[in-house]
Amino acid sequence: MAETRPTAAVKPVTSVQAKKSGNAISWIAPVLCILLGYSIWRFGLGNASNFEKPGPGWFWPDHHGPIGTFTKMYLGGIVVPILIGTFLTAIVFVIERFLTISKATGTGNNADFVRKVQYHLANKNVEAALAECDKQKGSVGNVMKAGLHRYREMISNTELSTEQKVLAIQKEVEEATALELPMLEKNLVFLSTIASIATLLGLFGTVLGMIRSFSALGEDSGGGAAASSLSQGISEALYNTALGIGTSAVAIIFYNMFTTRIDGITYGIDESGFTLTQSFASLYK
Fold first, then answer.
1. How many CB atoms are closer than 10 A to CB 50?
2. Secondary structure (DSSP) of 46-78
3. pLDDT digits (tens, 9 = 90+) for 93-138
């Protein structure tokens, strides 16, 4: 009886290497920004020289009679430094995501890059296609390069069927994609969270300010003076709302901008994987 030879299986080995990247900024940045926000509020806005009647205290001095418009923000209360810190945190992650996504976008247009690779593959020039990936220097180029390495291996492979070779290329592209996409989406959760809670923090600070204002009004028996004090207190409390809404608006705008750019990169990655599998299936039957 003739010995049955088992069908060769697709090699599980992949050329894609996991990227080692720390994410210390995710916990260091918020803490430092909150501390910086408190320093701006306490030692900048809350400097004794900015008030007609400086008060005692170190952590939260009881100053009165602010000199200047922005100095009135100090009287908004202890939520103001938190809001300033939240705004600074949003700016930090906007800069961090901008640099990361700009690098991931690479050089040139992704559609033009994919067309150049298609042209080289149609002419069976894999080395030229790899050279285009080195020029692109982005996530689409990285995924395409990983797929092209497996593509080149499958050309000389005589053990696998065409269908198995295509599956091997597709698997390589999927593994490379699985490593690229988390890097693009990392830390976006901070912008989405800030967009959600900044307005609530602002309203919370405003409510606390209103409570203090009405409490002071109840203790003040003077009519005109009480009304003036109440108006000033409400004005100061609304600085919390303004800071919260402004911070939320910045976070929402940049979050949507970044997700749109990531969607474009993801589309380019999907197109590159389709290009490789279809090219191989048509040229190496």
1. 18
2. T-GGGEEE--S-SSS---EEE-STGGGGGGG-T
3. 999 999 999 999 998 888 899 999 999 999 999 999 999 999 998 9
